[in-house]
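Subject: two folds for Thursday's group meeting

Dear M.,

Sorry for the delay on this. The cluster queue was jammed most of the week, so I only got both jobs back this morning. I'm pasting them in the order they finished. Each block is the input sequence followed by the predicted structure tokens. Could you check whether the formatting survives your parser before we put anything on slides? The first protein is the one we discussed after the seminar.
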Amino acid sequence: MAEPIEFYFDFSSPYGYLASCQIDDLAARHGRTVRWRPFLLGVAFKETGQKPLVEQPLRGPYHLHDFARSARRLGLPFRLPTPFPFAAIAASRAFYWLEARDAALANRFAKRIYQRIFGEGQVPADAAALAELAAPMGIDGAALAAGINDPAIKDRLRQATDEAIKRGVFGSPFIYIDGEPFWGHDRLGQVEEWLARGGW
């Protein structure tokens, strides 16, 4: 059985959103599954000395334009939320709490979170908002809200972020195929070709 594709992302990343809508189907076409791995991009920015794209001179206005254009090309809804950028700590903790119980459901919940943020333009920034979002999926909202504040889950997110940075993850999305790194949703074509050809 082939190893899962590793999909690193931050819920505050528009390009991560675009990739999240494609990565599972792409992997399935090549007999792979996906290991979803949220991490905190802000911590990586401290390591690289970068700022969020939209806060960078010249690059910021371009990316604001490109987010929407890229979504239109894929036929995906896109609304930039307010505030933006934002910290996605609670959403990431919610994912890891749920993953420990049901990894497949956690992946679906991650997609729903992304849809709420960039498809609908709303940030579920706290435990109550995430619990409300989880309830229609059959997830115990009260348990999830408690889990977000569990010290063990806080440590799990810190560990996941540290592990990502040690591996060389510096942006979102960041994809590994059998150890081969690809950065950016615009590399998904290369990801697919790599899977089809077995590398080059």
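Second protein, same layout:
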Amino acid sequence: MTELIGRTRARGIETLSLDATDTRNALSRALVAGLTDALKQCGKDPGVRAIVLTHTGNTFCAGADLRDPPPAKALTGLLERIVKLRKPVVARVAGHVRAGGLGLLGACDIAVASDAATFAFTEVRIGVAPAVISLPLLPRVAPRALARYCLTGETFGATEAARIGLITQAAGDLDLDEALAPALDGLRRASPSALARTKELLTATVLEAFVEDAGEMNRLSASLFAQPDAREGMTAFLERRDPPWVL
């Protein structure tokens, strides 16, 4: 599992890189387990001030791996670990993000994306719903915009993602690392204990959603993936054709 997660460190910032380019960094059982374990290790390491979550290849995360999807509970646990981690997690996005990958962005404390990034809630197009990832996203993303993009599956860019609160900043004309530099410098200048306490305050509402709704969302996700529409939608996706409900 560890080979799916690249790890480097520079001045207290641990960079975790999703490195399953053959599957466009889709959330497989192994990738979810590997990232969960890496985050757990970072949380215990006093030498880590903050974590940057990034990727290799042109896709940050393609959503769930339809050939080897993780259990809903495992994905929920990963998102909750990011939110509860007593160290800031910063998403560095230089590629496409789909479906479950958007849940990773919602769980992160800061997210910066380049103009090469695109975003889409594609669940409805394969016959399911964004159940588990709604836990970190509903408290943070503009409700009207979230309704539109979850219902339609439309693709949108980094500027729109920043406008609706899905990410913190679109890098625009800046190099992505240049855009990230002020935030990382600020984290390096902050007291670790103060960072932990501040993050706790900022994520309280998001954690409430996990406490109150995680069980229901796990059950809903499992139920939806077992439905005929989901089986047909996933088959159509893997066969690169439209499902029968497309008009």
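Two things I noticed about the second structure. The longest helix spans residues 204-225. The domain at 2-175 is CATH 3.90.226.10 (2-enoyl-CoA Hydratase; Chain A, domain 1).

Cheers,
T.
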